[in-house]
Design a protein that fits this description.
This protein has about 260 residues and is of the alpha/beta class. Helix content is about 35%, strand content about 15%. The chain is built from 8 helices and 9 strands. About 40% of the residues are buried.
Length: about 260
């Protein structure tokens, strides 16, 4: 019996975060555009696929998928992307089974400081995880001469003004609640620019009972739309993201 798990999008494209040659989520366009993109794409594993032939890639992976007894995705979004890449796929063999994290015991985290917005970002924030979003958000805060701060709990692959952005460096997972209280973060942004198949970070922050916003991409919006302290961001511009975070902070902490 063969079960295939869609943990990321390698079987759809060698740019396995589905970022195109411009470094943006591609949305899986028609095959001709995919080939043009792959010719020059530097994202993911694209540079290691020497043939640079999307028809060959999809034919090989399509053969593997056709042999699977079951194909497991972890969000509805992932299933839709899979069927877009392989329109002839037998969807009766595709199941959606969101991850669980029963081994992680989460307790509500009370933000220590809520008087004004202090944005938290959790994880190792590389380019595909939204480093550019964080950098542009910091620039927008400076442009407005605002006293809003950003705290990255982890690492950040971008240079930002330290007057706005603090970076904690790596930490042990059990220390995160204490770090959140110590650094005063109260409203969180999940800035990933690729369509995550799932997000343990979003699940963790929801488990803490903290307000969370994400871009309208992939699996996280499916969960945050049903979360009372969640916000899904349709506009990804820095000004719009900052306005939405200000509104989320006000709604959660300052409204009567």
């Amino acid at each position: 019996r063969l079960t295939m798990l869609l943990h990321e999008y390698f079987m759809l494209c060698p740019s396995h975060f589905l970022l195109n040659d411009q470094g943006e989520f591609c949305g899986l366009p028609e095959r001709g555009r995919c080939q043009t993109c792959l010719d020059t794409n530097q994202q993911g594993y694209a540079t290691l696929f020497l043939a640079r032939n999307m028809q060959q890639w999809r034919a090989l992976w399509g053969s593997a998928l056709s042999l699977a007894d079951e194909i497991v995705t972890f969000s509805n979004s992932s299933g839709m992307l899979l069927s877009r890449a392989y329109p002839g796929l037998d969807l009766s063999r595709v199941s959606v089974t969101p991850h669980t994290a029963k081994h992680v015991r989460l307790q509500p985290v009370q933000a220590a400081y809520v008087a004004s917005l202090r944005i938290g970002v959790v994880g190792h924030i590389a380019y595909h995880k939204g480093a550019k979003i964080v950098r542009e958000l910091a620039r927008e805060i400076l442009r407005r001469k605002s006293d809003i701060k950003i705290v990255v709990f982890g690492t950040l692959d971008a240079s930002c003004d330290p007057a706005v952005v603090q970076v904690t460096g790596s930490y042990k997972q059990a220390r995160l609640p204490a770090l959140i209280r110590e650094r005063g973060a109260n409203t969180f942004l999940f800035p990933s620019i690729c369509p995550e198949t799932f997000s343990y970070v979003v699940q963790e922050l929801m488990g803490f009972g903290l307000p969370v916003a994400c871009l309208d991409l992939g699996a996280p919006p499916e969960r945050l739309r049903d979360y009372s302290k969640g916000q899904v961001l349709a506009d990804h511009s820095a000004a719009s993201v900052l306005d939405a975070l200000i509104d989320l902070h006000r709604r959660v902490y300052l409204s009567d």
